[in-house]
Design a protein that fits this description.
- This protein has one domain.
- By secondary structure, it is mostly beta strands.
- The chain is globular and about 55 Å long.
- It contains two helices and 16 strands.
- InterPro entries: TAT_signal.
- Keywords: Signal.
């Protein structure tokens, strides 16, 4: 999942800063002129909806093993010659379902159930501000074997040498188990050099169309706790999401939303459509005008239920849209980097958002999007 380039964070953000810096900065202080509309029906408690597809969320951790000969061969075939000799990463990992705190969405038993393998490999390839071209394959209960490919961004964490934030947006290919299409996003804290202090780990969000018919083990084996270091992940989904409309400060539109903890099925990783009734966080996202292959976004989010007290962070990043067959709405994925907050022990972090939006409104919500947050460092109560 991960690049070794110390300059890649600068590369990733160069296009974003040039294209959307004024809009992003203004968005954090400005107020949209339009009155907020009613909350999107798919985000109301009691009627939370995935839309025409299905969300699955998994925690993954580097297994420490070398990729199998089959995975290596399939990866090489994706990139061909000579690109296969220039790959910067080949990673073998395991997928886990998890348990989480209903108040904050924080993962408590991160590797509760071991549900399958995942293998990814990364080549270099500039796509917008993204510098990596990733191919991955996984075996998920119910969904079967999924192959996927797309761009990833990478940014170093200055306060944690050797670690970096990686976010990927991969298109899921049709398979023999009934999956017809989809998009997978990752929120990763990378340790590509395998330095002491924790292995590379991620939270993957899969949005897939079609009825998966692959076998499901109703009682998958218990997972073993993994050394992932001082990283706190939480998984939430949108509740009472509103599209506020566009303004000079948010030319592409503004979204406000509550975030509530989302649990997953222990056997399949399917995200529950009955999130916690407790508000874990409130968020505001300001979008730059929609563009291809990506467009900028700025985020303000307050996590209300962290053990050390409320934490407000601002982040910036980019969003991408992918059309999916047979539906008018579009899939939208966003990856936003959180800066350090030394007073609270926050070294850095990342937010990813995976959801459907109306084709003409990046700030709208056509389903209840899944948010994942990674917070790196010993978050304190200061």
């Amino acid at each position: 999942m991960h690049s070794r380039s110390s300059r890649s964070g600068l590369v990733r953000r160069a296009g974003l800063v040039a294209a959307a810096a004024l809009t992003a900065v203004a968005s954090l202080a400005g107020t949209a002129s339009a009155e907020p509309g009613p909350a999107a029906p798919s985000t109301l408690l009691g009627s939370i909806s995935d839309g025409p597809g299905r969300f699955h969320v998994f925690r993954t951790v580097d297994s420490g093993n070398r990729p199998t000969a089959e995975d290596t061969s399939r990866c090489n075939a994706q990139y061909g010659v000579p690109a296969q000799y220039l790959l910067v990463e080949r990673l073998d990992a395991r997928m886990y379902t998890f348990q989480s705190d209903p108040a904050s969405g924080a993962l408590t038993a991160e590797t509760a159930r071991n549900v399958g393998p995942i293998h990814v490999c990364d080549g270099l390839g500039l796509d917008g501000t993204q510098i990596l071209d990733q191919w991955g394959t996984l075996d998920a209960p119910g969904l079967g074997r999924l192959d996927m490919r797309g761009p990833c961004g990478f940014e170093l964490y200055p306060g944690s040498p050797g670690r970096g934030a990686v976010d990927c947006v991969l298109r899921i290919q049709p398979n023999a188990s009934g999956v017809s299409a989809g998009v997978a996003t990752s929120n990763s804290v990378a340790n590509p050099l395998r330095l002491p202090g924790g292995r590379t780990g991620s939270v993957w969000t899969l949005y897939s169309l079609g009825e998966g018919t692959a076998p499901v083990d109703p009682a998958p084996p218990a997972g073993i706790p993994q050394p992932t270091g001082p990283i706190a992940y939480n998984v939430t989904r949108e509740v009472n999401s509103r599209s506020v409309g566009s303004s000079p400060a948010c030319a592409g539109g503004e979204r406000t939303t509550e975030l509530h903890a989302a649990s997953v099925d222990p056997a399949t990783g399917a995200a529950s459509t009955s999130p916690s009734e407790i508000t874990a966080a409130t968020a505001r996202v300001c979008y730059s005008p929609k563009a291809q292959p990506e467009f900028g976004a700025a985020l303000t989010v307050t996590y209300d239920t962290l053990s050390g007290g409320p934490l407000t962070v601002e982040g910036r990043g980019q969003c991408r849209q992918n059309s999916l067959p047979g539906i008018a709405d579009v899939q939208q994925s966003c990856g936003l980097t959180l800066p350090p907050n030394p007073a609270r022990g926050l070294v850095g972090g990342q937010v990813t958002i995976n959801g459907l939006v109306p084709a003409g409104d990046p700030a709208g919500s056509a389903n209840s999007a899944i948010w994942t947050t990674s917070l790196l460092g010993p978050i304190s109560g200061k």
